[in-house]
Amino acid sequence: MKEGLTAPGNRKVALINFFNPKSLGIRFIEQALSEAGYDVVMLHIGGFRGAYSVKPGEAEIREFMELLGEPLWIGFSVISYFYQEIAAEVTELIRQITKAPLVWGGVYTTLLPDRCLDFCDYVIRGEGEASAVEFSERLAAGADVSDMQNLAYRANGETVVNPVRPFETNLDLLGVAELGLSNKYFINDGKLYQADPGLDSYSYETSASRGCPYACTYCSSSNLKRMYGNASHYTRYRSARHVIDELKSAKAKMKNLSLIRFWDEVFSSDPAWIDEFSALYKSEIGIPFEMWTHPLKINGAMISKLVGAGMRFVGMGIQSGSPEVRKKVFRRAESQEQIMQAAKTLADCRVPQVVYDFIIGHPLETAEQMKESYALCSELPGKFTLQLHGLAFLPGTDIVEETIKRGVFTREEMDAIMYKPMERLYLAWNVAEVTDPEKLFWYRVTYLTQFPTLRGAARRLSQKPGEEKSRKKAARYYSLSRYFSKLRLVRNKGINVILERRK
C-alpha cells in the first residue's frame, strides 16, 4: 500500500475522466466530495471521437499537474476497458510527478480490480460516492484505509478485495451532477483549457435510474447486480421531480441545449412515474429527448405520454432475430411475438425515430440464425433505423466465459480480442467483422430492410442467397445504403436542433 501525503488541511482531490466530456459518473463523485467540503479539481481528457480519439500529450498533463499542486488523492474514471492502455499511460506519468495515492474507479475496475491494480494504488469498486468521501476523510486524518468497504489494493504482493458497501436505495440523496464552475479543465487537440466541455454541447446526458432488471450475458449490469447479492431492489429510480430539477439546471446553463439523452439501461415503465414525469417535462423542460427501452417494458399508454412530452427517439434492443441466440447465448427471454408487438406499439404511437439494436455477425451464431434476423427485420412495422454492430466481449461479463466454455476461443485468444488498441476495439464494435461470405450476405440484406425503397431488393436477393450475382448485388446495395445512413443521421440531428430553436 502506498502512503500518500496526508498533511493537515489538505482537502484537494483531483478527478480525471477519459474521452467523455459529459462524464456523468465522475460528476456525481465530484458532487459528493464537494458537499463533504473537499476542493475538487476535474480534468476531462479528450472529446469522444470513438476510434479516432487522440490521447493527451505529456506536456498537457504536466501543465495540469503544475496548476493542481499536491492533492490528497487523484481519481481516474476508467469506465471502459476500451481506453485502459491510455489510462495506464496517463496514470504512470502522473505517478512520476506526485506522491498522492492514485485511484481507479468505474465499471471495468469494479469487475476486474486485480488487473487494474497493475497500474494504480487503489480501486474503488461499485457505486463510489460514499466511498470517495470516506476514503478522503481517512486520508485527511492519516487513518488506515485497508478495511474500507468497496476498496481493493495490494498488500505484500497479494490483491485484497474488500466487501462492497450496501448501495443507496434513495437516489435523490446523491444529488445531481454539477455543470460549469471554475474547477474544471479540458485537454483537447494538444492544449489545456480551463473550461467545462459539457457546457458547449447541444445535448445533455443523464440517467433517471441505476441498475437493470435483466441479466443479458454481454452486459456488465448482471455482473454488478450479482456483486450486490442479486438484490431484488437493485434497479432504482430517481423521483421524477429530482430528474426535472437537474434538467432545469442544465437548461439554464447550456446556451446551445437542444436535446436530452437518457442513458438508463431501461427507462422507467411505472405508470405513476411516467404520468408525473411526462407532465413535468412538458411544462418545465420542453426539449426533445431520447431514451432506451426493452420489448417487455413497452405499452401504448406509456409511449403515447412520452411522445406527447417531447420524446423523439426510442432505442430498443432486439439483438438477434433468432430465438435460440437470444435465449441460449444472450440470456434474453422475450419471444418473437413480444418483439413484434412492441414494435407495433412504437409504430402506432408514431415515435419520430425508432432504433432497433442488433448484435450480429459474431462467432456464436450461424448463417442460418443471421437469416432469422433478416426475416424478423423484414417484418418490422413502421419507419425504423437498424443499429447493427459486432459483439464487444466486455471483460468480466458472462459472455466471455460462455465463449471460452464453448471452445470458440481459448482464454489467451479471448484476452487478445478484448485488449486490442482502442481504435481497433471501436471499429470492431461499430461494424461487425464478418468474413464468411454467407454470413456477410445476410448481414448486408438485413441492413437494407431499414430503407423502404430497398426492402423489395432485399426480399428478392434473400430468395437466392447462394448465387454469386446476388452477393455482388447485396454488396452494391449495402454500400449505397451506408451513404443513406449518413445522410439520415445528419438530418435527424438537424431536426432536433431546428425543433428546439423554433420554440
Write up what this structure looks like.
- This protein is of the alpha/beta class.
- The protein folds into 2 domains: 163 residues, Rossmann fold, CATH 3.40.50; 261 residues, tm_1862 like domain (pyruvate-formate lyase- activating enzyme), CATH 3.80.30.
- It is built from 19 helices and 17 strands.
- A 9-stranded mixed beta sheet has the order 7-6-5-4-3-1-2-8-9, with helices on both faces. A 6-stranded parallel beta sheet has the order 10-13-14-15-16-17. A two-stranded antiparallel sheet has the order 11-12.
- Strand 1, helix 1 and strand 2 form a beta-alpha-beta unit.
- Helix 8 runs parallel beside helix 9 and helix 9 runs parallel beside helix 10.
Blueprint of the fold:
Elements: E1 12-18, H1 24-35, E2 39-45, H2 58-68, E3 73-77, H3 84-95, E4 102-105, H4 107-111, H5 113-116, E5 122-124, H6 129-140, E6 151-155, E7 158-161, E8 184-188, E9 191-193, E10 203-206, E11 209-210, H7 221-227, E12 236-237, H8 240-253, E13 259-262, H9 271-284, E14 289-293, H10 300-309, E15 311-319, H11 323-329, H12 336-348, E16 353-359, H13 367-377, E17 385-389, H14 398-405, H15 411-418, H16 422-430, H17 437-448, H18 452-462, H19 468-501
Parallel strand pairs: 1-2, 1-3, 2-8, 3-4, 4-5, 10-13, 13-14, 14-15, 15-16, 16-17
Antiparallel strand pairs: 5-6, 6-7, 8-9, 11-12
Helix pairs in contact: 1-6, 8-9, 9-10, 13-17, 17-18, 17-19, 18-19
